[in-house]
Amino acid sequence: MKPLEDIRVLSVTVFLAGPFLGMTLARFGAEVIKVEMPRVGDPIREIGPFTGPNGINHDRETEEDLSIRFLKRSEGVKSVTLNLKDPEGRRMFLELAKQSDVVIENLSPGSMTRLGLGYEDVAAVNPGIIYCSIAGYGQTGPYKDLPAHDHQIQAMSGIMDMNGAADGPPTRIGVFVGDLVTPLYAAYSILGALRLKEKTGDGQYLDASMIDTLATLMFMEPMELVLRDGQAVRSGNDSRNGVTGLYRLTDGDVIITVGSQARWKNLCEAVGAGDLLTDPRYATTEDRETHVEELRRRIQDGLGRFGCEEGIALLQNVGIPIARVRTLDETMDDDHFRDRGTLRPMYRQDSTEPVEPGIIPGFPVAFSGGTLPQLEGGATLGHHNDEIYGRLLGLDPAELADLKNSGIL
């Protein structure tokens, strides 16, 4: 099943956010052509560890070695080289754009416009183009020219302020959440723009901002009320105002969710703390919020007597959501993810042998109408030059050789 098999995407993307957007569209069957600088390519190609003929190594040992980070964000994406700083390179890019449905880029704001390849330039030759830019702070506003990766965006957005223990420092979320969620917003925005184009014939420009993405995630919670009421912004692994949270058992940690009067009653009775239900100090939700630390200690005393298997069964039997906190090793080895295709072996595009050890995330939604396409692995730099420039621009091998010798390819 290839919902986007008639869509061609021209991608000028580096590092993570833009490449993840390109890979997401490729997973739906779009032809995604990544345009990279000759001999240099996406900077992430130079960041190890690398995989090649000699296995996995921290440093590149052979010309065939590819960055594992690059492989993880390039599945199904074709690679061509093109010098966009050269007039002929810009002309060729616009020729490719004429035959494309979507352009995506995540260079510094204004970079593509300064090259003469911004939205207005592309729309002049292809009025129906959907052109999407991703940037840390977006294309407008007082911060737009500040350099930013996910670390800076987490800091500036405020999400670090709400992450971590209440008595500890602000804490960065352990994955590049801005780099990963922003392209998901961008992907369904592109799908919406393509749907509108079917109705009107009009293309449009999409301005995706990583800091705006994190703001939308944070304020799905009533953070403005938390601030107004002077509550602690950071709550670590616990709820700000209840006994929901992390508890240490004899052989591991579990996390529970209470969240209702019925669950509170069942929890207290299950862990031998039924007296809390008749104590007037804890009669109302507000009372329990006031005394939440001592209530957590009582629940810890009652639940902490059990091992994880017994404690989980105990609370599951009374309808309390509970789960053991697993290690990454345990998650990686769980057949659940293999069976659903969530985690799959990682391949290079030039090999049928999987990279070991190597895992690439699949798409986490299953379609009843069929499976999404199985994609080739990440490509070596310029691997698709002959195919793309021959098929789309009609260039023959001699012309391609001349362009390569002149530094354009």
Q: How is this structure best described in words?
A:
- The chain has about 400 residues and is α/β, with parallel strands linked by helices.
- The chain is built from 17 helices and 14 strands.
- Helix 1 (about 15-25) packs across helix 7, helix 6 (about 150-155) crosses helix 8 and helix 7 packs across helix 8 (about 210-220).
SSE layout:
Elements: E1 8-12, H1 17-27, E2 31-36, E3 50-52, E4 55-57, E5 66-67, H2 68-72, E6 78-81, H3 87-98, E7 102-105, H4 111-114, H5 119-125, E8 130-135, H6 150-157, H7 177-200, E9 204-209, H8 210-218, H9 223-228, E10 245-249, E11 252-256, H10 261-270, H11 285-290, H12 292-303, H13 308-316, E12 322-324, H14 328-332, H15 335-340, E13 343-346, E14 355-361, H16 385-393, H17 397-405
Parallel strand pairs: 1-2, 1-7, 2-6, 7-8, 8-9
Antiparallel strand pairs: 3-4, 3-5, 10-11, 11-12, 13-14
Helix pairs in contact: 1-7, 6-8, 7-8
Give the CATH class of the largest domain. Alpha Beta
Report the total helices. 17
Share of helical residues: 25-40%
The termini sit apart by 33 Å
The order of strands across the largest sheet is 6-2-1-7-8-9
Q: Strand-residue fraction?
A: 15-25%
Q: State the domain count.
A: 2
- Determine Rg (CA atoms, Å): 26 Å
CATH topology of the largest domain: Rossmann fold
Shape field: elongated
Strand count: 14
Question: What is the CATH homologous superfamily assignment of the largest domain?
Answer: Crotonobetainyl-coa:carnitine coa-transferase, domain 1
| Classification by helices and strands | alpha/beta
CATH architecture of the largest domain: 3-Layer(aba) Sandwich
Major sheet summary line: 6 strands, parallel
Low-confidence stretches are: none
Mean pLDDT: 95
